[in-house]
Design goal:
This protein has 322 residues and is an alpha/beta fold. It is 39% helix and 21% strand. One of its GO terms (molecular function) is catalytic activity.
C-alpha cells in the first residue's frame, strides 16, 4: 500500500471515529440557542464588504474536561487544569484587538479575575449598615476587573461559553469552528484546554449511580477520537491553529510536541512541562522552536504576555502570506 492510500485509510478511520462519537453523544441542552449566539457574534465582527476593516477572532479553550461515569452523573474522571493560562491569554488577545470566544470549564479561572482572591465575594466586599461596598484593599483591583470585563462584553469582543464534560466540549468546539469558518485566515484556535484522552461512551454508560457495594470496579475506557485533524481539514481549514502539549517528563516533551505539530498539521504547538509551565514554554513551529520566558524583572509578569505577542505576530504573518 502506497503512502497516499495509507493516508486516505487513516483519514477514513478518523472520520468514522469522530462521526460515531458525535452520533452517540448526549445532545446539548440548548443547541439551537447556542448556534444562534455564535452566529450573531461572528456576524457582528465580520466585515460588511472586502473594503471594511477585518477583525481577527480567536477561540480560546480553557480548563479541563470531565468524563462522566454514569449518565445521571455522580462520579467522573477529571483533567487537571485551573484555567489560568486560558483566562490570562484571553485578556492579552483582547488587548491585541481580537474578538475572543472563551470556551471554558465551569468553575475555572475567568478573564480579569486572576488578581482577585479565591473567595472574592466574601473577601472583597463588606457590609456597611444597609450598603455593600468594596474593601479598600481590593478597591482598585475590583474596579479595573469590572471595567475591563464590561468593556469587552459591551463592545461585542468577548463571548463566554461554559462546558463541563468531554461531550459538551467537543460538540461546542465543532459549533464554534463551523461558525468562524467563513472568516478564513482571520480565525485562530488557541486550544489550551486539558482535554480527556479516554472516556466512557454514552451508550456503554450505566444510567444510575454506580454502587460501591458491588465490589471492585472494572471499567474499560475508550480513546477519545482525535479532533485536531478534522478541525484542520474540515471544520475550519483556513484557521490558524495552536495546540498545547503538557508533559511531566521533560525528556519526551519536545518529541511529543514535534509529533503533534506534524501529525495534526498545527501551525504551532506550545510545549510546557508541569512544574515549569508558569515560568517558560517552548513554541514549536515548522520554522523552528522559540523559548518564551516570564520576565524576572517586571512585577506581576507572566509567561502568557510574551507568548500571546509572539502568536499574534505569527498569525499576522499567516494572514498576509500568499
Amino acid at each position: 500500500m502506497d503512502s497516499s492510500n495509507s493516508a486516505d485509510s487513516l483519514h477514513s478511520t478518523i472520520d468514522q471515529d469522530v462521526g460515531s462519537f458525535f452520533a452517540s453523544a448526549p445532545p446539548l441542552k440548548d443547541n439551537s440557542g447556542l448556534c444562534n449566539l455564535l452566529n450573531q457574534f461572528v456576524e457582528r465582527i465580520s466585515p460588511l464588504s472586502e473594503f471594511d476593516g477585518a477583525k481577527k477572532v480567536v477561540c480560546v479553550t480553557s480548563g479541563g474536561t470531565t468524563v462522566p461515569l454514569e449518565q445521571r452523573c455522580v462520579r467522573y474522571i477529571d483533567n487537571f487544569s485551573s484555567g489560568f493560562r486560558g483566562a490570562a491569554s484571553t485578556e492579552y488577545f483582547l488587548k491585541a484587538g481580537y474578538a475572543v470566544i472563551f470556551l471554558y470549564r465551569r468553575g475555572t479561572c475567568q478573564p480579569y479575575c486572576r488578581s482577585l482572591p479565591d473567595d472574592a465575594l466574601l473577601q472583597c466586599l463588606r457590609v456597611n449598615n444597609a450598603d455593600i461596598e468594596v474593601t479598600e484593599t481590593y478597591a482598585d483591583i475590583v474596579k479595573e476587573a469590572i471595567g475591563n470585563h464590561r468593556a469587552a462584553i459591551s463592545e461585542g469582543n468577548l463571548l463566554k461559553i461554559p462546558f463541563m464534560t468531554i461531550f459538551e466540549y467537543l460538540q461546542i468546539l465543532k459549533m464554534i469552528a463551523l461558525a468562524v469558518r467563513p472568516l478564513g485566515r482571520l480565525a485562530m484556535f488557541y486550544l489550551a484546554a486539558a482535554v480527556s484522552d479516554f472516556y466512557v461512551p454514552w451508550e456503554s454508560m450505566v444510567e444510575h449511580k454506580i454502587q460501591s457495594g458491588s465490589g471492585p470496579l472494572d471499567m474499560r475506557l475508550a480513546q477519545v477520537p482525535k479532533m485536531l485533524p478534522v478541525l484542520r481539514s474540515e471544520w475550519a481549514p483556513l484557521a490558524f491553529c495552536i495546540s498545547f502539549k503538557l508533559e511531566t517528563d521533560s525528556k519526551i516533551l519536545l518529541d511529543k510536541a514535534v509529533a503533534a505539530l506534524n501529525k495534526y498539521k498545527m501551525h504551532a504547538v506550545v510545549a510546557n512541562e508541569l512544574l515549569s509551565r508558569k515560568e517558560e514554554v517552548i513554541v514549536v513551529r515548522p520554522a523552528g522552536n522559540v523559548i518564551v520566558r516570564r520576565s524576572k524583572v517586571e512585577a506581576g509578569s507572566d509567561v502568557e504576555n510574551p507568548l500571546i505577542r509572539l502568536l499574534v505576530e505569527a498569525h499576522n504573518c499567516y494572514i498576509k502570506a500568499p
